[in-house]
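Dear Dr. H.,

I hope your travels went smoothly. While you were away I took the liberty of generating a structure for the chain from your last submission, since the lab meeting agenda had it listed for discussion. I wanted you to have the full record in hand beforehand rather than looking at slides cold. The sequence, exactly as received, is reproduced here:
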Amino acid sequence: MRILVLLISFFIQVSVTYAYTPDLICNYTEKTETASVKINEDLKTVTWKVKNKKTHELKIVESNEYYIKARGFNIILSIERLAKTFIVALASLNESDELGAEYFTGVCS
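The corresponding predicted structure, in token form, is as follows:
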């Protein structure tokens, strides 16, 4: 009986966590691409997916009522909550092992 109660409470917590996860649709200003963003502050993760491309799970490193900063292996994402704008830095190494980055900005709705 205790196991049943624990399982039911676990599923309720999971459903509540996902029910309040805000979804944002972000549009690049420099490119005509769209990204979807799922923020889960309880799990400290941000899911970033550019349309028809790979999905990235980013870890939230800073969060308050004004902004969210998340980081992955080669991505840094900053979202300003009130203005609903974002900045993404995509880092990569070239053939000479030189680090380069591309920066994109845009608006989320």
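Two observations you may find useful: DSSP finds one helix and eight strands in the chain. The two ends are 45 Å apart (CA to CA).

With kind regards,
E. W.
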